[in-house]
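Exercise 7. Predict the joint structure of the components listed below.
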Amino acid sequence: NAGVTQTPKFQVLKTGQSMTLQCAQDMNHNSMYWYRQDPGMGLRLIYYSASEGTTDKGEVPNGYNVSRLNKREFSLRLESAAPSQTSVYFCASSTEWGNEQFFGPGTRLTVL
Amino acid sequence: GQQLNQSPQSMFIQEGEDVSMNCTSSSIFNTWLWYKQDPGEGPVLLIALYKAGELTSNGRLTAQFGITRKDSFLNISASIPSDVGIYFCAGFTSGTYKYIFGTGTRLKVLA
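Solution:
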C-alpha cells in the first residue's frame, strides 16, 4: 500500500497561473481532505469530501476548487494563483470522519 | 482558525530522557490523534485514541485520552536522536466535519 500519494512534490507558479494538485489514496477510505500548512498557522482545512460525490468548504476555501474524481482521487485546483497561496499543501484521508486520518507527503507551492 | 493549545512549544532533551507533552481544549473531543512531522515530510500518525481514559502505546510512545475529554498527553520514553521532529495533536468532535490541530511541539534531542 502506498497510502496517500500527492503530485507534484514541488511547484513554482507565477501570479495568475492555474494548476491542479493531485491526490490519491489506496486504502479504500471514504473521506478525503485538503489542508494548507503555513508557519505559525498550523494545518488549516481548505476543502473536504465526506464521501465519493460530495465536497464541502473548510476554513479557507477562497481561491480553490476541488473535484472528487472517484473514491480514490481528490484534486485541488488553483484557478488564478496568488502569492498568498504560497504554502505546503497536504492531502489526507480517513475511513470516516473522526477516525484515523492519514496524510500524504505534501506539495510545496511557491507563487511568485 | 480554531486550534488546540499544545505545550511545550519546544524542548531540548538529552538522549535517554523521557519526554512529556500535552494538548488542551475548551471543547470536548471524541477522538484524539497524535502525529509526528519530520522536516519536508507529511505528518505521520503515531497513536489514535477514541475513549475517555484510554491509554495506548506504540513502542516507546504512550498517549492518553484525558478523562474530561478536553485534553490528551503523549509520553516518549528513553528518547533517541531520531525522535527529533514536530509532534502534533488533533481532536475531533462528533457532529462536526473537521479535525482541530494543535500548534505543535518541536522536539530536539541532544546526543
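Discussion. The interface with chain A takes residues 1, 3, 30-31, 33, 35, 40-45, 48, 88, 90, 92, 94, 96-99, 101-104 of chain B (CB under 8 Å).
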